[in-house]
Specification:
- Two copies of one chain form a homodimer.
- Chain A is an alpha/beta fold.
- Chain A folds into two domains: 158 residues, Aspartate Aminotransferase, domain 1; 244 residues, Aspartate Aminotransferase, domain 2.
- Chain A has 13 helices and 13 strands.
- In chain A, strands 2-9-8-7-6-3-4-5 form an eight-stranded mixed sheet, with helices on both faces. The first copy, chain A, has a three-stranded antiparallel sheet with strand order 10-11-13, covered by helices on one side. A two-stranded parallel sheet of chain A has the order 1-12.
C-alpha cells in the first residue's frame, strides 16, 4: 500500500468511508478492555502460586543468618533476601538494602527524604528555591508524577536509541546546580523498550554535576524481563562503573520482584554505595522497625537463587512473547509502509511505544476508547502529561489474552488510520 | 521491712554489703537477657503460625469484593481487610485506609507528609519557622524519635492517671499555633499502662487548637491487648466523639496487627475523617500502586472476624499474664514498702513502668547491665532521651520466659536497692 501522504484527498476520503465502516463493525463487538497499565495477566500470576506454598505453619521460619522472620527486627533485610536481590541487581550483597513491597514506594520515599533531609548532609531540597529533575522522554508516568507532586521542575531530555541524549544531560547537570536528579529506566525502557548503550552508562558514571547531591534514579524495573532466550539486551552494571569512575555516590539503583512474583506482594530493594546506604538507613531506622521478613523468606525459599529466578522469567516470557508478537504482527500488517506511525520492537519489558503523526495521539486514544479499548492516556509518557508533539502512545500488551489483543490491535490501527486521515485532510 | 529513708547510714551501709554479695551471686549466673523492647515471645509467635497455612497455591486468592489479590491495584485495601481493621479500630469501614506492614511507618509517613505537603491544604510544616509537638511523658521513644528527626520541637506534658494533663494540653494548643500535634497511646499506654478516661477523650475531641492543622496522633497500639478477661480497660472511641464535637478532622488513629499476628508481617491502618482519608490518599496514590493485598487476605482468612481476633488475643494474654504477674510479684516482695520505687500494674499492653528515686534510673539500668540484663535505656521514655528527674524505667516482660524473668527481676530489684542506697548515703 502507498503511504497515506501520497494519496489524493479523494482517495483519502474514500478510504475514510471504508475505514469508518470497519470501525463500526469492530465497535459493535462490544469490547471492554483496559490496556492502560503494564499489568501481568492471570496466567503469569499463576506461575508464582508456589510462593503461597513454600512457607507453612510448621516450616522453619528462621533465615540462614538465624533470624526468626516472624518477629521484630533486621532493618536491612535477611541475608538470603539481600543476596538474592543483590544478584538480581548485579551488585555485591553489601551494596543492597531490602525494603517493602514496591520499588515505586522506595523511589517516592527517597525523593521525600531528599526534600526533608537532603542526601548525605546536603541541604534539604525543600529549603531550596528551585529543584529540577531531568526526565528522559517518553518515560514512566509514575516517575514524573512523584517529582511533580513534590514541586520539582521537570526538564525533558530526548530518549535516543542509545539512552538519554547524553550531550544534553552532561551540559545541563554540569552547569545548573539546581538539577538534582534524573529518572532512568535503563533496560527495556518504559515505554520505548530502549536499553542504554555501554557508552551511555559510562557517561552517566562519569557525570560531573554542579550539584553534589545530584543522583541518577536508576529504576531497573525490567532487568531480567526478556522476551526471548536468544536475543537479550545486556547493559553495563552502573554502580560498578561509578565506583571505577570514582563517583560511587551518584547512582541509586531500584529493583523489585513486582513483575517476577506478585505485583504488590513482592520485595523491593535499593542498591547503592556504602555512603548512600548509610544515609538511607539513617532515615529508615525512624520509619520502621523492619520490613516484612516473612515475605522476604517466602521469596528466597521459592526462587532459591538467581538461576531459579531466571528459569521463572522464561515462563513469563513464554506467556508474554506471543502477545507482543501479535501486536507487532497487526501493526506491521496494517500500518507497515503507510507512513502514519512508527513503533518499537523491544526484546523485553512491558511496552511497545507508538509514535503517530504529530498532533494525533490524543485523538487516537479517544477514538479507541469509543470502541471500548482503554489505552494509557496520551501524554502520560511526558512530564505534566504534556507530549509536545502529541504523538506518543504506550501500548501495554501484557494483561489481555492473545485473542483480545487481536481485536484490540485492530481497533487501535483503525483509530490510527482514521485520525491520520483527518489530519491529512485538514 | 522499713522504708530505706528511715534506716541509719550504718544500717544502709551494712545492707549494701549484703546486697552486693547477692548481686555478685546473680551476676555469676551469667544471664544474657535483652529486655529492652516490647517483643513478643516465641510462644506468642507460635500462636499465629496458622497464618502461614490459610493461603495455598491453589487457594482462591480473590477477595470478597472480587479483587485478585495477586495483581496490582486497590489503593485503600481489600474490603474484607478494611472491615476487619475498622472493627478492630471501632470505626465504620468507610473511615479506614489500609497500609503496609507497620503503623509506625504510617505515623512516620504522616509526619513526613505534613512536612512536605501539610494537612488538607495547610502550609507544609517544612515551610514554617517552628513546629512543636506535645509529648505526654513518659511515652514511646519511637514516637519522640520521629518528631525529633523532623526537627519538631517537643514539649513534655505529664501523663496522669487519667491520661495527659488536659488543662495543660488545652491551654497550650489554644494559645500557640506552632503546636501541630500530640502523640497519644490512649490505651495501656507505653510505658505506664494508663488508659485515658472518658473525660480525657471528650476533652481531646473538643480541643480548639490555634493551629487548624493540629492533629491528635492516636496510636491505639494496644487496643485489644488485655491481660485479663475479667478486668479490662475500655476507652471511648475518639473519632466518633470528634464527629459529635463537630471536630472530625482533629484526630488520626493508627492501628496494626503487629502484636496480634506477626510483628513486621502484619497489616496497619489509618482511621480518620473523610477529609483526612482523602488527604492521605492524595499522597498515597503517588507513593504506591497498592499495599500487600495477599497479606491482607491472609489476615482476613486467618482471623475471620473480630470475634476470631478477640479469641486469638486471649491466647496471647494467657502467655503474657504469668510474666507480668511474675515481675509484679518480685517487685512487690522485694521492694514493697521500701519507699525506693513505685511501679504500674497495667491490665494490658506490653510494659510496666517503674519510677525510682530521683536521679537513679540511669545508674539502675547500668547496674542491671553489669549482671547481663539489658533494659530500655533510662531516659528513652522522654523526648530527646532526657528524663528530667532521671527516674523512669520501662520494664518489658514479654520476650523472656517466666524463669528468665524471675532472675531478671531479681537483678533489677537488687540494682534498684543498691543504687538507692548509694543515693541515700550521699
Amino acid at each position: 500500500m502507498k503511504p497515506y501522504s501520497q494519496l489524493t484527498k479523494e482517495e483519502l476520503a474514500a478510504l475514510k468511508k471504508e475505514l469508518e465502516k470497519q470501525f463500526k463493525e469492530v465497535k459493535a463487538k462490544g469490547l471492554k478492555l483496559d490496556m492502560s497499565r503494564g499489568k501481568p495477566s492471570k496466567a503469569q500470576l499463576d506461575l508464582s502460586c508456589g510462593l503461597m506454598d513454600v512457607l507453612k505453619g510448621d516450616s522453619d521460619l528462621v533465615s540462614s543468618d538465624g533470624v526468626d522472620c516472624r518477629n521484630y527486627g533486621i532493618l536491612d533485610g535477611i541475608f538470603d533476601a539481600r543476596k538474592l536481590l543483590a544478584d538480581m541487581s548485579e551488585v555485591p550483597e553489601r551494596s543492597i538494602l531490602i525494603y517493602g513491597n514496591s520499588s515505586l514506594n522506595v523511589m517516592f520515599d527517597t525523593i521525600s527524604r531528599a526534600m526533608t533531609h537532603g542526601f548525605m548532609g546536603s541541604t534539604p531540597w525543600s529549603k531550596l528555591n528551585k529543584v529540577k529533575f531531568l526526565c528522559p522522554v517518553p518515560g514512566y508516568d509514575r516517575h514524573f508524577a512523584i517529582t511533580e507532586f513534590f514541586g520539582i521542575e521537570m526538564i525533558n531530555v530526548p530518549l535516543l536509541e542509545t539512552g538519554p541524549d547524553m550531550d544534553m544531560v552532561e551540559s545541563l547537570v554540569s552547569s545548573d546546580a539546581s538539577i538534582k536528579g534524573i529518572w532512568c529506566v535503563p533496560k527495556y525502557s518504559n515505554p520505548t523498550g530502549v536499553s542504554y548503550s555501554d557508552e551511555t552508562v559510562r557517561r552517566f558514571a562519569h557525570l560531573k554535576p554542579a550539584a553534589k547531591d545530584f543522583r541518577i534514579f536508576w529504576d531497573n524495573a525490567y532487568s531480567i524481563h526478556h522476551l526471548y532466550e536468544d536475543k537479550k539486551d545486556v547493559i553495563l552494571e552502573i554502580l560498578n562503573e561509578c565506583i571505577k569512575a570514582d563517583n560511587p555516590d551518584i547512582v541509586l539503583k531500584f529493583i523489585s520482584t513486582s513483575k517476577v512474583s506478585f505485583p504488590g506482594s513482592g520485595i523491593a530493594a535499593l542498591a547503592a554505595s556504602r555512603g548512600n546506604l548509610a544515609d538511607a538507613k539513617k532515615y529508615m531506622q525512624f520509619q520502621t522497625i523492619g520490613h516484612d521478613k516473612l515475605n522476604q523468606l517466602r521469596h528466597v525459599r521459592f526462587f532459591g537463587d538467581m538461576q531459579g529466578m531466571f528459569e521463572h522469567m522464561k515462563k513469563h516470557a513464554a506467556i508474554l512473547r506471543p502477545k507482543f508478537e501479535k501486536v507487532q504482527e497487526v501493526l506491521e500488517r496494517e500500518l507497515g509502509g503507510l507512513g502514519i506511525g512508527t513503533w518499537t520492537k523491544p526484546l523485553g519489558g512491558y511496552f511497545i511505544s507508538f509514535d503517530s503523526l504529530d498532533g494525533c495521539a490524543k485523538a487516537i486514544v479517544a477514538k479507541a476508547k469509543e470502541a471500548g479499548l482503554v489505552m494509557t492516556g496520551a501524554g502520560a509518557t511526558f512530564p505534566y502529561g504534556k507530549d509536545p508533539r502529541d504523538r506518543n502512545i504506550r501500548i501495554a500488551p501484557s494483561f489481555p489474552t492473545v485473542e483480545e489483543l487481536e481485536l484490540a490491535a485492530q481497533i487501535f490501527v483503525l483509530s490510527v488510520k482514521l485520525v491520520s486521515i483527518d489530519k491529512l485532510l485538514k
